[in-house]
Amino acid sequence: MFYLTMTRYVTVDEENGAELFYYFFESEGDPGSDPVLLWLTGGDRCSVLSALFFEIGQQPNSKQAPLSPKSVRSCGPLKLVIEPYNGSLPRLHYHPYSWTKVASILFVDSPVGAGFSFSRDPKGYDVGDVSASLQLVKFLSNWFGGHPEYLTNPFYVGGDSYAGKIVPFIAQKISEDIEAGVRPTLNLKGYVVDNPTTGERIDYESKVPYLHGVGIISDQLYETIMERCKGEDHNNPKNVICKQALTRFNDLLNEVSKPHILYKKCIYMSLIPKFESMDRKILKEELGILKHRPPRPSIQCVSYSNYLSYFWANDNVTREYLGIKKGSVDEWIRCHDNDLPYTKDIKSSIQYHHNVTLNGYRALVYSGDHDTVLPFLGTQTWVRSLNYPIVDDWRAWHVDGQSAGFTVAYGNNLTFATVKGGGHTAPEYQPGRCSAMFRRWISNMPL
Question: Active site includes 424?
């Protein structure tokens, strides 16, 4: 059986000609009634292919037959085959744990400049948390306006890492539009965030107790930081003793893989090309040219699949089947690290989590328990700060008779969960457990 897949653009800034690119996968269950999920990935300006290929499924096994690029337009989410790159187009496999088994998913390259999203005028790349979020609300209005058959389906907003700051803001804007009678009226039910940032100090200050708890820093260093760094900005401490302690702390942190402390330390596969100017982004006729070959990690590294993605996304065969506009993006980059303007003008997302859940919308907040980028301790702390009553106390949740993590359910339909063995982000390391968690939650079942 094949499932409808669309890859298209939606204009979100007419003045500058900015368009967001998306991949739509119809549910493998009952697409007429199953939920529709908008999924965003983190940053800076990372392509949503990271979520599609690496975070919402499982690495394929050798028994699965490889697929052609054409398969992206005819079936559910896929994964790259992990095999030595030989110069040919990287092969694809099906996701055995795809979330499309229970929901239709809109994967969107956002903000403008991420993945295959582009702007005809360089001014269109100058966005921030608020403006990019409002563009996504406009995207959804245009998309559902063109696909009214999905308007009655339950709708959820989801995202990971930095997108976790954007998701509750979008959910609040949609809820406000619903109250104001703005059409089309989305059937918003809630949101889900994976290893989410908030913009608050707790995001990075929680690294200290986490690293102490897992044995990466000593008792003495932990005690020094807790005593001498009170009230200090951990990114720019003024206290000399605090600064020295945090330098030592970062040295020890750099001894492990930050996304998952048990995995090999590998090359960070977020290529940073040296652009002469932003003019390179504007409607050049070269297409499918990989000008900046990424460094090649060991095939034993999780990041090897990231390496393969550059060759897959920059191949003309792939781009033809995806329908990429010629001259729009001359070179696909997995993530843009500060090479395009971006304003972080949502200082804290916690207020939006509070507002949306207080209005009765459902929320699932989950974290991989081996992540040092955004440790679960910090996430657990701000979730508790909402001061909602506990309705299902801290307990294990299970997959195949074994604990898959731990969870607590609060009033106002808020659930927090950890994923055992998960990193940043959790589905990349524990696809089966995350798939089971999502299936239960989206079906209104206890984890």
Answer: yes
